Amino acid sequence: MRDALDPSAFRSAVGRLASSVVVVAARTTEGFRGLTASSFTPVSWEPPLALVCVDAFFRAHDLLVAADAFAVSILSDRQEFLAERFAGRGPGSTGRFEDVPHDLAPSGAPVLRGAIAWLDFRRVVSYPAGDHTILLGEATAAQEGGGSPLLYHAGRYVRLSR
Ligand SMILES: Cc1cc2nc3c(=O)[nH]c(=O)nc-3n(C[C@H](O)[C@H](O)[C@H](O)COP(=O)(O)O)c2cc1C
To answer: What does the pLDDT read at residue 94?
Structure first.
C-alpha cells in the first residue's frame, strides 16, 4: 500500500478548487448555530440530495449534526463579512446570528437575507469521515434571489469577473 499524502499537500492542492461559499445553519436544541462552508455539494436530482462536510472541531458540530433539518444560504459577493463572521472570526458560534438579518426556512432553520439562494433540508443521514462528518440532506424547499456568488480559491475570497 502506498503512503498517505501529507495533509498539507492535500489541502494545498484541493485549495486550487474554486468553491462557492455557503452558510450552513440549523435550529438546534441550544438555539441557532451556523458555520461558513465551501464543501456543500449537490448529490442527486431525484430525490434532491446534497451534502456538506462539517469539521468535528467546530464547536457546535454535535448540535448541528443532530438537528433534524438544516438550511444552506449561498452567499453573494457582497457577503464576505458574513463568511468571515460565520467562520468564527467574530462572535463565537453561539452569537453569530445576532444583528444579522435572517429569515426562517420552513424547517425553522435560519437563512441569511441577501443570499443568492437558500435551500432547506431534512437530514437523511450523517457519516463520520476522518476529521469531518458528512451531512446528507434531502431538500424540502428552495428560494433564489439575485446577485453573484462569493467564491473561495487558494485561501482567498474571489469574485466572478464578467
Ligand atoms: C471559505 C471557508 C470555507 C469553509 N468551509 C468549511 C467546510 O466546508 N466545513 C467546515 O466544517 N468548516 C469550514 N470552514 C471553517 C468553519 O467555518 C469554521 O471552522 C467554524 O466556523 C469555526 O467555528 P468555531 O470557532 O465555533 O469552532 C470554512 C471556512 C471558510 C472561511
So the answer is: 83
Give how many domains the chain has, as a whole number: 1
The whole domain housing 127 covers: 25-150
Cell triple for residue 150? 462569493
Q: Are 139 and 105 in contact (CB under 8 A)?
A: no
Q: 3-state class of 158 per DSSP?
A: strand
**10-26 burial, b if ≥16 CB within 10 A, otherwise e?**
eeeeeeeeebbbbbbbb
Structure pTM? 0.96
Report if residue 158 sits inside a domain: no
Query: Mutation test of ligand 1: which of 28, 35, 74 has the most ligand atoms closer than 8 Å to its C-beta?
Result: 35
